[in-house]
Description:
The complex is a heterodimer. Chain A is an alpha/beta fold. Chain A contains 26 helices and 26 strands. Chain B has helices at about 15-25, 40-50, 65-75, 90-95, 110-130, 160-170, 180-185, 195-210, and strands spanning about 5-10, 30-35, 50-55, 80-85, 100-105, 135, 140-145, 150, 155, 175-180, 220, 225-230. The interface between A and B is large, with 38 and 34 residues.
Amino acid sequence: MTERRPDPEALLEQVREEERRARRGRLKIFFGASPGVGKTYAMLEEARAKRREGVDVVVGVVETHGRAETAALLEGLETLPRRAIEYRGITLHEFDLDAALARRPTLILVDELAHSNAPGSRHARRFQDVEELLAAGINVYTTLNVQHLESLNDVVAQITGIQVHETVPDSIMDQADELEVADLSAEDLLERLKEGKVYVPEQAARAIERFFRKGNLIALRELALRRAAERVDAQMRGYMREHGIRETWPAGERILVCIGPNPVSGRLVRAGKRMATSLKCDWTVLYVEAPGQRISASDREALVQSLQLAEELGAQTVTLSGLNAADEVLAYARSHNITKIVVGKPTHPRWRDKLFGSTLDQLVRGSGDVDVYVITGDVEGESARRRPPAGRASPAGEYWRAAFAVALATLVGFPVFRFLSLTDVAMVFLLGVAFVASRYGRRPTIFASFLSIALFDFFFVPPRFTFAVSDVGYILTFAVMLAIALLISALTLRIRAQADAARERERHTAALYAMTRELAGCRAQREVIAVVERHWTETFRTSVELLLPDQEGRLRAQASGGQRALGDKELSVAEWAYRHAKPAGAGTDTLPAAAAFYLPLLTSARSIGVMSLKGDVRRFEEAAQRRLLEAFAGQTALALERAQLSEQTERTKIEIEAERLRTSLLSSLSHDLRTPLGSITGAATTLLEDAAISPDVRRELMETVLGEARRMNRLIGNLLDMVRLETGALQAQKEWQPLEEPVAGALMRLADVLKDRRVDVQLPSDLPLVPVDAVLMEQVFVNLLENAAKHTPAGTPIDLSAVARNGEVLVEVADRGPGIPAGEEERVFAKFYRLPMSEAAGGVGLGLAICRGIITAHGGRMWVEHRPGGGAAFRFTLPIGSGPPEPVPVEDEVAQSHE
Amino acid sequence: MSEPVPVVLLIEDEPQMRRFLRAALSTHPYALVEAETAREGLAQAAGRTPDVILLDLGLPDGDGIDLTRRIREWSTVPIIVLSARGWERDKVAVLDAGADDYLTKPFGVGELLARLRVALRHTAQGASGAGEPVFTVGGLRVDFEHRRVFIDDREVHLTPTEYKLLAVLIRHAGKVLTHRQLLKEVWGPNAVEHTHYLRVYMTQLRHKLETEATRPRYLVTEPGVGYRLQAE
């Protein structure tokens, strides 16, 4: 064996598998050939040994069957009380899964893996309970007999003559971490049976006798050992794969098992599994459905079960639709590189083959280089024959119409008989029958045929007006008429059925496409919900509810009208489906007593929600409906995931934007706060350290310190105002006041900044009072004037004016500087926006944003225009409505007082 | 013999602030007493009977308004509060509780000394009883006896209410008066909510007395608080 680099994909899968296992509990199966070999005993012994080592062991359920030695081993082990379930008046005691999950031991013992739980339990089968325990991280010991294995079930039945119905999927055994075979030779076992040490249920005594024949026991033992050996082989291969040891893989085989709607299919599927396992290859199970084919309910049931079995055993299942089964099978085989085809031996009588052609024959002849394996069907169970398509039951109206057509033919027959021959009349009747066959169902056609024959006979065949026939040859005519009628009828029915099936498929596809297309246009989750609801309800014609997890992870029903909390029972079923990513509820194996069918919506990563369908859910067991359900579920999950991701992207974008703003703010703040500080520190240190400075320079430095300190004060004021604006803490305390007061305040505060320039203030003396917050309005003027001073050359004047007009006061602060660049008129009001040239002048770019915020808080508008003649003109409005509430009493001036 | 130096009680917890005030007042005839907490301040106010109190509103262990009220229970000593910009409502509250004036941080030495002067002058005036018959500041001259007002020697005619308003301002010249105080003194206690009366009359007064309404020499607006007549 040469060392080779392990295949990365396979290794990745292995790593994932190991990870999965690490989180899962470990499963050890005590495996045996038959009851009585000592599986439970071995399990208990080991459990006790573990307990002595200090492991937390709990007995979930152990059947002692009254054996004293087994019961003795139970002593000292903590045992979970069973759950009592009432069923049809009897109290059954089942394993309490919830108690086990709550107790969360390190190791739990669960006997008899194949056991079926009583109705009312969460799962139908005990191995499903064990699955849940393992998923929860609890280690499990369990016991299993070889006859309970799905793939060996029929083999064992053949050996022992007893069909065991409680089977366990092979996957459970294959995934088990450890397998211990409790082995006992046939002689020893029989010895024990004689000693009464083996459990024998009273009722089945005779069957047990048959079971415990030596030949049986030997065969079973071999089977068990061989199955265990297969497992070891698989482990070895895994080891080899891990270490890159190349092994000789057989040339890639691919097996195709063809099944039909009969119980034989189960056997075929199991045989396919065995073949696939021994050849170590992939296998597919194929069913070809004839359109319009009518199958009895039990046969359909068997078919569905066979398909489910196939999936459980690890096959890919495919259902095709076609008239000629052999053609479909061969086409599939060719396109999928099938190397072996497995079919069942024909069970129908030979004459059908002679008449209708043998599917098997066609298959074999057309198989080319593909091997065809023909396997024996089971003696038990009926085989279904392909009944010709029957179509729907015909309503009474059709019979009348058929009769009418025949009557019409009869009427036409008379003139024909007069001028042409009897054969032509026969043709007319044939035409009539053919017409009926093409339009109506089979029975009306048969009815029309017989009616035609009768009328033909009566009215036209000599002796006329009797039902007697003079020439026996006419019998042949009648027979031919009937045959043609039936043939045409069968043909048209088939075609119609095919057309119906095609239409149905097209409908499904169209429904899926319609939903997918609408979903593609949805962005927000609630849009998705609305679209999904509509389409599901329309397509499946049940009431549906989409369940999605809320903030805390609890499922809530989302309807376009809003959310709704679920009832406890519904919630528990829905949550089970959600967490385990498997369907649950009505019509499934898990919690079948629930009111609705819960289908989890799965994306590649996880469960994203659950769809609940109420109403008649048995329809969904049909393969085509199931496929449609799954397709819908898949698309819905994708759309939901996309909506969630898109919302996340939006949030992320906003966060990135906020982050950008923060960074920009921090950097500019840092610069703008440090710059005046730099001047102040510089000036102060110079004043401190240099003793020989002239008084003039000294004065200048100190003025610098003062000026810069004041600038920083304004800057900090701006920052604080911005914070207040942002957090909504900016409350405008409006009071009626004259505009000149805030203007005066601003001019005083900026006295040193404005000392080199003129500020022309034009406020009409009859300017009405404005309802403003004094401090905030002063700040607006401070910011506007400071901006004007910063952006214009020293010495240029600033104009401030106001005018009252229809319900508001319009204020303007204009400068004669370079103005605002074209196109930036809105952007200047944005936070942290600074014109490039103003960076030298300092400031963080908040002044205008704050002004606008304050003006907006007063109910006004602010904007900037270009001043004719050059420069920027900032304008804002302040609404004054109808003026202050109480008019001020007017007085006369008095030159002197009389008091 | 020289008069006793006015005692200034400074209740301020910030050491830098105290240092600055110490330095500012060191070259002026004031005796500075310092307290760091409200409790200490109260004790000192009672024990040392200062002539003026400088009270910081942001004391760690006490509410300036409360302290003002308590001092006002047994003393009329002028209280000047030091507070930051943006706390106008607190300033109004403490003025209404009995404080006389305020300084907004950061303030300059000039402002501080001006306020102290005003405060002490009013105490002196109060102690001496009557006010002056004629009030003069800059170009403004008001003859109380004859009820005549002159700006730069030109007579100005005021309505009775305007005159009353001006008189109130003069009576507290240099000190800030809240809207509420002005309304109460001029229009009576029932008019304290009609702030716009005050505004209108102040505007009228301003237009009559000032050369430039937006650069007032005498009638200063304290935004969010009230008005002040410059005393020098």
